[in-house]
Amino acid sequence: MASETQKAGWDLLAVADRERAAAMLAACPQLGSADAALAAIDDVQGSEGGEVYAWMADSDLIAVYGLRKTGISYSMEWLAVAPAWQGQRYGRSALMDALRRCGRSPMTVQAEDALVGWYQRVGFKIVGRKPLPTGGYRYRLGWYAPRRPDEPGYGLH
Predict the structure, then answer these.
(1) Residue 101 CB contacts under 8 Å (≥ 6 apart), including other chains
(2) What is the DSSP letter of 147?
(3) Which residue in 25, 28, 81, 104 has the fewest CB atoms around it within 10 Å?
């Protein structure tokens, strides 16, 4: 349970939590080490339109994700949930938070074979794939906001 002084939920990653976030992100296949994760955090935070968000509960860092605005769309660069908290819907919460921040703009993610179905259950569609040197594929998935009834083309598909 969150303390009185810190509300649990998604907020910008605090500088004091960079090292812990990097240790968590080191497990991401595209990063692979704490040093690469620190560089990735700095890259996203240092780019225009880039932010790193974390879910904190008391002093526990539960999950972290990077979101970058690229032109008219957004890209979720990476997402990690602490092992002790996996399976408790923090990953899905991160996706929902990122989509909320994107508004009606499209968002893309990249995922290994094992995670494609997880993203598809939220509504992402495969938009591309590349073979990996170790076998399998790296997929690019996209999410697009459904059309509103007042938009042109509503109901045509």
Answers:
(1) 67, 74
(2) P
(3) 104
What integer pLDDT is reported at residue 156 of this predicted model?
A: 56
Backbone angles phi, psi at 116, to 5 degrees: -60, -45
| Residue (of 92, 85, 90, 80) closest to 25 by Cα position | 80
Sheet holding 50-57, edge to edge: 9-12, 50-57, 60-70, 73-81, 107-112, 137-143, 125-131
CATH classification for the domain delimited by 9-143, as one of 3.40.190.10, 3.40.630.30, 3.40.50.2300, 3.30.300.30: 3.40.630.30
